[in-house]
Amino acid sequence: MLQLKAVVAGYGGGSVLQGVDLVCAKGTVTCVVGPNGAGKSTVLRVISGLLAPAEGEIRMDGEPIGGRPPDEILRRGIAQVPQSHALFPAMSVRENVLMGGYLIRKDHRLLRERLDQVMDRIPLVVERARDHAGNLSGGQRRMVEIARCLMLDPRLILLDEPSLGLDPRGLAGVAEVIRRLNEAGTTVLLVEQNVRLGLALATHGVVMEGGRVRLAGTAAAVRDNPEIASLYLGGETRWTSESPPPSRTGRPGSPPTA
Predict the structure, then answer these.
(1) What pTM was computed for the model?
(2) What percent of the chain clears pLDDT 70, i.e. is strictly above it?
(3) What DSSP line would sit under 2-34, residue for residue?
């Protein structure tokens, strides 16, 4: 469905991504993990059109999309939920969700159909429809952000740190929404600092370090990799910039895959 090949990208003349190869197959949940500064969020930005790649290819269903403007990427079925909270706090939940249908705003019938679909998939939108978004908890805000992006019926959703700043209850609610989306056929690519949560949600895992993919495979294979398990899952489950990087070769004797 989505393929990145030798992608180089960065900011202000510097390269954060150093030749990223990544595949996201249809119907999967792919989780990208790694230390701070590894380039995880930058990968999402080049896919969504917020950052143009300097080199390499990005393809969706075989068609090149690298460097295309964000509105075109949206029309191709790719939507991103950013890391920072991005709701309009003084607007109601329903109004925030409707903002996600901006590209189809002139088709009132379709807009209503999409809103009905979103309310069926995420009941919180019905329960808190008239409440100001600023009065929601962190987990509820994240659910509304996901609901808003569903207004365009995306085939691929990009989630940047969906667990950031959430308490256990909020984490559980957001995780359940992601599972239901995938069960309904939506492909998900997420970046997570919470390694244990991210790999538990995912079908496939990708480990990045230094702007490159160092290990990729099924979520179980990445989770069970001896070095990943001992370094990042034995106790603390959040990567920090001080954490040692994963092996450049994955399992002993095995080359990295992407």
Answers:
(1) 0.85
(2) 88
(3) EEEEEEEEEETTEEEEEEEEEEE-TT-EEEEE-
